[in-house]
Protein 1
Amino acid sequence: MTRFRPVLAPLAIALLGFTAVPLPAAATPAATPDAACTPAVVAGATTDARLTGLFTAYGNDNSRLDDWTGADGTYSLRLPDGKELWIFSDTFLGQVNQDGSRPPVVEEGGTTVFLNNSFAVERGGRLATIHDGTAAKPTAVMPPRDENHWYWAGDATLAGGIVEATYQEYERFGTGAWDWRWHRNVVARFAPGRLERPISVHDLPSGHGVAWASATLKDGGFTYVYGVEDLGSPKYMHLARVRGQSLLGTWEFLTADGTWSRNETDSARIMSGVANEYSVTKVGSSYVLITHDTSEPLSPNIVAYTSCSPSGPFTGRQHVYTTPETGGNIFTYNAHAHPDVAGDGLVVSYNVNSFVNTDHYRDVTIYRPRFLDVTFE
């Protein structure tokens, strides 16, 4: 893999999946039932024209040539001043040609800059790209330690007004296109007024093969941190929690018998079939898990599960949406919700990519997020 070819990043997180069902009863974490809990029922999903159009217009705007023209990842966080922070992994910066194409990346002789992570800030329907470096030579907001390592973004949370953004570090171990692997988890702390580089970076639990955090959720005095144990096929959900708001606190891991342990090796496989990025959101009195369906290879289907507890079990699979972009070289992946973002329902994003790298130069619309409004009965 070359770090400037984004097609390989999502391929690693969109490999063959496994049927998304709870594990056998002996290994299913116990939940505390809520007598008042009514499982949310999906009523429908429609395109969120505002957000999809916002990123389309911004990506096509050539008034600056050091800003966003496409990316994947697409996490979000409401900042203390009301702005929306958009958190991206692999990112294109530069210009868009009049025919809807983009120049190749710098490393291939073009002018497009490729970064492994970036931010964008939205306020009042206007976006601004955040990167480190200079306008002439942008660099990632979460810089790699060397050319053989890079960071892809996970979910983020606020702690005492500070942004705590999670990242998974990947490393190259050979010369082959697929000679790279997940290495560790970290959390980078950013001041909301100085987002181009972190204040500090801290190690997160990384000794049990789980990539944290596919999702985070604040609930009942805890911050829940959802992760994925990625075996290609299958992928397993894991769950940890920290008392309070900061991920720098003491982590506890959900075990197979439904108790919590401070020993990372006790972390249990909650269910199989989640994507590498998903979300758990409180909707009414229940908790809704939204993920790309991985019961079939590179599925175009987004599905939802519900639980009466943030720790599951998540059951009752419901179809949410079939992505129309999927077909030929194009695939979609990593749907998850944005509960703090205003929309006509629960806002959900998903990513679009191609198996053919030159497609990203031919058509800038491919490597951009799409947004949905999901409603519930």
Protein 2
Amino acid sequence: MGTRDQILDAAAEVMHTRGLARTTTKEIARAAGYSEATLYKHFRDKTDLFLAVLTERVPSFSAVLADIAHDPEAHPLRDNLIAIARGALAFYHESFPISASVFSEPTLLAAHRDALTARKAGPHKASAALARYLRAEQKLGRVAHHVDCDAIAGLLLGACLHHAFLTSFAQHPLTPAAARTHATTTVDALLPSLV
């Protein structure tokens, strides 16, 4: 395992246990067994590390969505939405404990938001991607033309984020069976409004 991977593993662990707001690059470097200077050879700052942890150490929701959006007709609409919901649940369940602490301090949140905006990243990207996928399903005739795709994307992802909040608060693990059940019941509740 290379230096960058060791730093990322340490960052994921420290951020998961301490939260993003309370994590420092010095702590991450120490946990990885390197100096801060070595850390900065691989990452610009803590935001860079956070984004790398989200994309490389947390289950990839965007990869699931991109795969489905690439060929939406490969599976029925319901199956696609359940797969998307399961991906979102896994992502939010893992990332919520890391990112929730950033809301504890307004100046930290503002700096974090500015850093994400500068990198053309942010939590709104998932909802926008899901709405694009739903519009593609509209063109295929599998989602009714009157459906507000942005609203449906918000409802589906909101349900997944809410579940992640509740399970994190209760310190319950997200089992595959629980993820499957929650994804299925959520999609089945939304599906009648889509067709």
Protein 3
Amino acid sequence: MTSWKQQLERQARLLVREIAALQTHLDPEVSFGGIDDLYNTLERIYTIDLPLADLRDRSDIIFRLQGEAFTDRPRMQLITSIFETVTSQITDLTKVILGTWSDGRVSPSSLDLSLSGISRGSLIFGMAAETDKKGNYPLLKERDTMFVSTRKALSQIDLVAHLVENDQEEIKLEEVSEQISDPRVRDAALLAVQRLAPSGRRGIDALSISGDIEKPARLTIEHRRAIRESLIRPVIHGEELQLSGYVREIDLDAHRFDLRGIDNHQIRDVRCAYRDLPDVRARDLLGSYVRVRSLVERTADGIPRLLSVLNLEILKHAPEDAYLVGDDSPPLPWLKG
């Protein structure tokens, strides 16, 4: 397969030949605008297009942010914040894809960011999934699982961005579910794209995302708002289900938590979305053993993956030190938000 860089190098060689052919027929004392245009095109290929093509070849996904924040010299604090946000969302989605295997194994170091440069009006950078170079994974299978899941997280963000690009007022969850069959991964991918889309508060008007799909998907403030509204009721055609288990990871901003150590041993890990919890503080849930009555969305093989909580009851509060859990308890809890 021809790389982006190879395609541009081929164009550059053709331009050089065309320039050389023209020069043999032109009077060097007479100005000819046509050859100047060819030189300008050649200069653009080498100074702008080739570096971007090289970045595209080395990256699994490309982000381009546009807005007044980049018209002059953007603040380093803004650039750092952008990188932290992108890395955090990719890490969170990778955790969801890996499931319980991810505990203690997924961190921002799993990802490799490369900055192509800043041009007037935009910031462009690429991200690629990398295998661990420090040998932190004792088994080849573990390393490969992490790499594959991280790449999948990047591709899911690219896919969701393109699926919602034309839905600035209302996100059609059914259409997204046709492409992402796992409700848990779908919900996490939508949340990641929602948090990546511009908020309108930092001088960023648009975010373009391109990966496996060559044409970039352009997201705006309206997309962020539409996705947020869709995440309030994330379950599609769910029936009621009651489960008991331990609340582990919880995201207070997204109103999401993971239920593990479930009394039904055929279910290992369920993502729960909640809105109003009368008489229950969300922060008190972390590490507690709870019973939830919810609407459930399952995978094609019938496994519950996403719950929309209707009612929640704390059966056993978490100990003061939430890390003092029994041998049979799921991995340690994590609070976010």
Protein 4
Amino acid sequence: MSARNSAREAILGRVRSALAGTDRLPAAGIPRDYRAERPVADLVGLFCERVADYRAAVDRVGPGGLPAAIVAAAHAVGARRVLTPTGVPQSWCDALRAEFELVDGTGIGTTELELVNAVITTAVVGIASTGTIVLDHRPGQGHRAVTLVPDAHICVVEESQVADDVPVALHRLDPARPMTFISGPSATSDIELNRVEGVHGPRTLHVLVTPSPG
């Protein structure tokens, strides 16, 4: 027997000795649902706090105030041309059209996207513990490129969409759909740790958190 096999058998022998007389694990293995959710007094508040930690702007908007808040966010990022993906509520488009040039995101190419200053989308999930928003690119969210090329991304998250943690969020997602996880504006740093934003995606992320309709 080689020295490697001898050492391996010695280690396994110690493991067997340590397990002798103990209860065996159930056939199904260790249960993974022992902590489905953690009790959080203000889940939405935690989400907003963690979003802000990533240097993203975040506002909680009351019922009926969303169109005006979207317009204010577009002004805050200095937008002139705003992309609205198919499926965005008409009330948002009407409010934006009064003050900005709207761009239809249907079938838009990279060259046209480079002329867009900001994109407004919905989301599918917000993750409180990490301050992450998730898009699965259904109507209202556009395809992945429209949230990566414009300099600013304004994203609306409903309070009911906020999940406690990543495992809870994953249970709400359809694994067959493409997904984009966004934690703050795009950023990187060089060897001297100088932070640079907007390298791989939007330089500015503005999250608007609103009560769910109904």
